[in-house]
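To whoever picks this up:

The parser on our side crashed when reading a file containing two proteins. I've narrowed it down to the boundary between the first structure block and the second sequence. Both blocks are reproduced below exactly, byte for byte. First block:
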Amino acid sequence: MIDYLEVFAVVCGIMYLILLSKVIRWGWIFGIMSAALYAYICFNVSLYFQSILQCIYVFAGLWGFWSWSELKEPSETGTYHLPIKENIIVFFGALICAILAYYLLSYTDQKSALIDSFVSVFSLLATFLTIFRLIENWYYWWIINLLAIVLFYQQNLKATVFLYVVYLALSIYGYLEWRKKLVRS
């Protein structure tokens, strides 16, 4: 049964990223569906941080959908840059959180704790950057997707490995699309 759920979660995840690449708010609905399914799937393969992360994605998806509801005209779908100083602070804050998450997972039977910690923490960061339409989210997604391919391969979740390969390609496409919509200041 999980195999069918995984395939459906993959399809929803791909739709989510295609629509978000175009700055179309309905993508968040597909993201919510995919995340809800993955919360269940990840818990069943003992990827606890991934399961928690997916639950957070459900709420982030609701926030993103609500936040992007103000985008009514194509001219309002601009994307933005985060200043370099703030980028550095955000990166090191997430790095510290990932190390702390790894330390916490060392007390569980968590599989692939180090990779899961980094993927989970930096995925949260990238999601929030996405909600605020900050183009730097795509840089993080490139690395996260590569690490997630390794993580889910280790758990033998083949359809999910495929999803993250597609996510990697779509994250490059998303960056190029968002770059066209970049608001210059």
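<<boundary where parser fails>>
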Amino acid sequence: MAAAGPAESAELAAVPVTPAGRRGGGIRRAVLRAVLYPFYEMRLEASLRGYAPPRHVGVILDGNRRWARSAGLADVSEGHRKGADHIHELIGWCSQAGVEVVTLWLLSTDNLTREPAELGPLLAIIENTVREIATAGWRVRIVGALDLLPAETARALKDTGEETASRAGLLVNVAIGYGGRREIADAVRSLLHDHATKGTTIEELAEILDVEHIADHLYTAGLPDPDLVIRTSGEQRLGGFLLWQSVHSEFYFCDAFWPAFRRVDFLRALRSYAARQRRYGQ
């Protein structure tokens, strides 16, 4: 696993402060960074040539509320809106890099316990975001326990996913009402119901049950497991994201809050992934 911290940020921060004072030096650093970032992006892109991109990238979009508070905003919904607006850029970056599947964790099962004053607007933002992703031409698949969501929200999300099911190109999995433990429990429940309709006894099922049987009933059934999982906001934990599927994933943790996540941060994650030797336990 890797985390983007102070050492990596120093790649662009090493601009000396002159005796004119810290404030003037800080302004000069900001200007220089703005000028140099395009060249830095080009350098990062060049470093990725010859390397195969990850087929499936999972992203834990964390830090919307902390970004809003750090920006002095009283309403954390502004952070959720800013983060939602940023999603389109990320999908574009993934498409340009050759990624085939991107899974975005927008709402966990734990998030559903938030105060109604925050949860209501957040669900509306998510519903609108999913609709915009579909309108932009992407294929959308909803992964999560939709039965935990308000009925109108669940129906709107499901309808959007079904409308885009036949599209080609990059697939955007949108994890809403998602929890890794809940997904595994739902997979086992679905498996049991499936075999019950076939008349399979518990004893017979126990004899043949293996990991593939459960994998076939996950929300992401039929898709490749994530090669790379990115989490923003500096937190270094999965929090239940794709617990089953991430057994062989590479992890990249970035200090930036999600609304402040830049293309250079994404390219750094790809560079870190390219540098890994994936042995799958061999």
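After patching the parser it read the second block fine. The CA atoms of residues 75 and 179 lie 26 Å apart. Strands lie at 2-4, 56-60, 101-108, 139-143, 171-178, 228-231, 250-254.
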